[in-house]
Amino acid sequence: MPTKTKKHLVVYQENVQQIHLEDEDGRGLEEYSKSLSKFMSLNTISILKLSKSFLIARPSKICSILVEEEHFEEEPIPEKLTPIPVRKRKKRVKKEEMDIITDVVK
């Protein structure tokens, strides 16, 4: 099974609670951390785009970012099962087995 990586980020800010984020980025930890350091060097309010979310922040107010990497095996996608049509057999009834109703009640 192929393995994927997930990054767990904890953003520490001045006098504010931590922000916990996740990113499914295939880059190595070193390359990923270098791109985050470029983000932290910005002076204006900036947008950090992650795989499933965005963080709008003022990088000058961020003290540090902890990045942890997790490797996991990707779940295989099950193949779609094609239903096989089932033909119902028709039962033949012999004339001797049939009751013929001649009286009709109104």
Number of contiguous helices:
1
What is the gyration radius calculated from CA atoms? Answer: 33 Å
- Shape label: rod-shaped
Q: Show unreliable segments.
A: none
- Note the main sheet: 3 strands, antiparallel
Strand pairing plus helix content: what structural class? mainly beta
Q: What's the average pLDDT?
A: 84
- For the terminal residues, how far apart are their CA atoms? 72 Å
Spatial strand order of the main sheet: 2-1-5
- Strand segment tally: 5
- State which percent range the strand residues make up: 35-45%
Order of secondary-structure elements: EEHEEE
How much helix, percentage-wise, in residues? Answer: 10-25%
